[in-house]
Structure formats: C-alpha cells, structure tokens
Amino acid sequence: MYQHKSKIIKIPNNDASLSPPYLDKINKYWYIGGSTQIKNDRSIKLTSKNIPHTHGSIISNGIGDNAINDFEIEFVFKLSYAENSLGKVGDGISFILTSQNGFLLKDLTSSFARRQYIINSGGVLPNDISMMGFPKNLPGLSLVLDTFANDSKNKEYVPFLDIFLNSNPQEDFYDIDSDGSKSTVRRLNKDHIKLRKNVLQGDMICLRIIYIESISFLKIDIRYENVGNYWIELFSNNNLPDTETQLIFLPKNEKTGQRFIGMGALNGDLTETVELFRIKTNEFHWDNDINQEDLYDFNHYKEWENFLLKEFHEQITNEKDSFTRWKMINSQPIYENHLQETSKLMNLKPLSHTKLYCQKDSKYDSSLWKFLQSIFKWMAIVFIMITLYLFSIYVRVSKKHWKKIQSKKFKKSLKGSLLPI
C-alpha cells in the first residue's frame, strides 16, 4: 500500500534544549532564579525537601533560537520528598511557554526598574512567584502541576494538572489559594486533570507539549517511566466541544517574535525536591520551500493532519470539521499580534479594565500616557525649582536694597544731629 510521504520534517532545536553537562548551556541560553542548584552532570534542582518557603525557576533567555512556531517540547523531571512527610508535599511545579522573560533579569532590583518592566511587559508582576515559581499573571501557556490541595475540595485529585492560557496579564491571573479554581485566566481543561501517584513517588516523569501554530493545534501528553514507554494524552484542543473554542494561539514576544520555555517549582510550609533532567525541543519544518500563499491553501492544513496522524497517532478531525476550522484560522491575520488576536477571539475585556491595577481609563494604562506623565512630572519639578531660585534671588536683592535704604536713612539722621561749629 502506498504511504503518503510527509512534506514536514522534525528538526532538533539545540538552543532551546537542555541536557547534561548543564553549565555551558545555562550560561549561554538560560536564566535561573530563586534557590535553583545546578549539578552539572546530574540534574538541575529547583527546590529541595526540608527547605520551606523557597522557589526555583529556569527560563530560556532568547539569545538562541526561541522563535518557535510549530514544535514539540519534552520536560523530564522527578519529584521526591522527606520520608516523614507522610506523603504531604507542596506546593507544585509549573511548565511555561511565555512571551516575557525579563522578570528574571538582575537589573530589576530598583523600584523604578521594576515599574518600567511592569509597563513594558504589559503588566507582568516580576516579584510574584505564586504560580509555582513564576509570576501569577505571566502571559502565555502555563501547565501547573499541583502537589498540595489548598482547597479541601481538591484533595481527591492530588496530584493534578491544570492548563492555563493568559492573553491579558493586566486583567487575568492564577490563584494559588484556590488551586487555580478561582483564577481569572482562561483554563483550557474543564476539570482538574488527575495524575497517577507515580508523580509523588520519585519516578522519572516526562511531560510533552505539542503546538502547531499554523493550524492552532495544542496537545499535552505524559509518560511515566515505571508504567511503560508510551504516552498518555492529558489534553488536546481537538477534543474541545466546538470549533471556535478549539482555536488556541500562544502569545509571542511582540518585538522579537519569540516564545520562551521555562520550568519552576515552589515550596510552602510543606516541601519537596524537584529535579529537572532534560528539556528537549524539536521544531517541525517543511522539507522544501513553500510560498506564503500556500499557507492559505486547505491542502496545507491536510498535510498537517497527515503528519500528526503519522507522528503522534493523532487524528484531528473529519473532512468537514477540518475545513471549517481551517477557514476560521485563515480568517485571522498571520499572527502579527497574538495578544490582541487572542483577546478578540476569546471576547476578553479591554486591557484598560484591570483588576490588578484598578485603573478606570484606558489611557492610564498606555505606555505613552505614562511617559507623558513622567515628562509632565519632571517639567513641574523643574518649574518649581526655577520659581524657588528666582524667589531666592528676589529675596536677596530686596534684602540688599532694604539695607541700602536703611543705611541712607541712618547717615541722614546722623548728619542732622551734628551741632554747628
């Protein structure tokens, strides 16, 4: 039987991958934060058991090739805890694909630098770590693996996974106190995705993210080392109820077009050791040049369907639904501004109506207005200083003039008081 040869090939992206020895790669391509410890030939330890209220994080710095559009990312990690913890560990792990990574830069120590970053990043809170080591309102895709139920209603699910997509960091955020249930950010899964207890038993775990931007396809899989060498699907937007909710666009950095890969972990009162062993990134490319016009051809969509079926045994949809979905994707601009397009698609509120900053007028949220405010502020300061300086000159001149008048009066009175000879 003739098999269709795919025009799409898988190519490793070494700049966005991480494996031992770690130090050379981290020094060149990654940022680290918190209490992260690097054992060059063994693992990257994000958090450690018996050390409460700590966090660790790692994220690609954008120096290498982070302009990833159609790709597959695998995280290999392990979680362990102290024997006397009776299986109660906390708080959890996060895996992210985001358009912002500046919150881990060293130059955010001053309040002015932090404020400027918040403005430039669209509202990201750089000092927050409540999303398992990352800011709670970080834009992009966030997979939160929760290992402790803050809400008693969620105890039966632990450990569990939630998948969030934040396209509006000024408005939406992850809520750790409710285990994500009261988050304002869009949660892609309807209910918590319950994971096997192997996650808490020191087994090697592999989590995989597959994203095809050109057909708006997202798939999340997990593999448990001690269960078997096969993938278990946790989520696929192909299984969402209707074609419109299936459309998922992950934000890119507006200036560079990059997406940054990261992993974090957080310890609260309860603790756990989280070790990262490998991040493996592959990109999917066409094996020959393709004209830009071909991206609007339905055959392009069908080629991706054939590739996913062959590579991941993933049947997307039938012919009719495929064509409907392709038309909806094709009706969007070619992703030049992912944040705004996703906001329009999800019917989100305007960026001006923010819960995080509670500002009423959209102009107060714009960088231009804040820049003008800063200019007006400095102009007012300069005006006040000039006024004070002129006033001091006036006081000095007046004082000097007054002294001259008094001196003349004194001499005149002295002259009039002399007796004639």
From TrEMBL:
One GO BP: endoplasmic reticulum to Golgi vesicle-mediated transport
GO cellular component, one term: Golgi membrane
Molecular function via GO: D-mannose binding
Highest taxon of the lineage: Eukaryota
CDD domains (alphabetical): lectin_leg-like
Keywords: Membrane, Transmembrane, Transmembrane helix
Gene3D superfamilies: 2.60.120.200
Transmembrane domains' residue ranges: 375-395
PANTHER family in UniProt: RE50040P, VESICULAR MANNOSE-BINDING LECTIN
Protein name in UniProt: L-type lectin-like domain-containing protein
